[in-house]
Amino acid sequence: MKTLSLYLLTAVAEIVGCYLPYLWLREGRSAWLLLPAAASLALFAWLLSLHPVAAGRVYAAYGGVYIGVAILWLWAVDGIRPTAWDALGSAVALAGMAIIIFAPRGS
Questions:
Q1: CA-CA distance, 61 to 49, in Å (whole number)?
Q2: Is the pTM of this model over 0.70?
C-alpha cells in the first residue's frame, strides 16, 4: 500500500506541475501559476527518488500509475466522464505497473 500511495502522490505532483502552466498558456490565467507549478514538479522529481527500486523500473511502472491518475483527473478536474475504453486502458496500464513492481526477483 505504501508503494502505491507513493506512486499516486508522485503522479498528482506531476499532473499539477503540468496543469498549472496549461492554465496559464491555454486559459489565460496568471503567470504566477508557474511558481507553484515549478514547486510541484520539484516535488515530483523528489518523490521519484524515494522509490526503493532501480530508477528505470520506477519510471516504467510509474507510467501505468500516471495513466490511471490522468484519467481520474479527466473526470474530477476537467469534468469529462471517462469512457469504458479509458477505464480498460487504465486497467491494462495498472496491471503492467503491478507486474513490473511486484514481480518476484532474485537477490
A1: 14
A2: yes
Where in the chain are the domains? 2-102
Q: Does the CA dihedral 59-52-98-107 come out positive or negative?
A: positive
Cβ burial, residue 65 (10 Å; 0-12/13-18/19+)? buried
Rg of the Cα atoms in the chain: 15
21-38 as b/e, with b when 16 or more CB fall inside 10 Å?
A: beebeeeeeeeebeeebe
Q: Is the pLDDT of residue 24 over 90?
A: yes
Q: Which three cell numbers stand for residue 106?
A: 532474485
Q: How many CA atoms lie within 13 A of 102 on its CB side?
A: 10
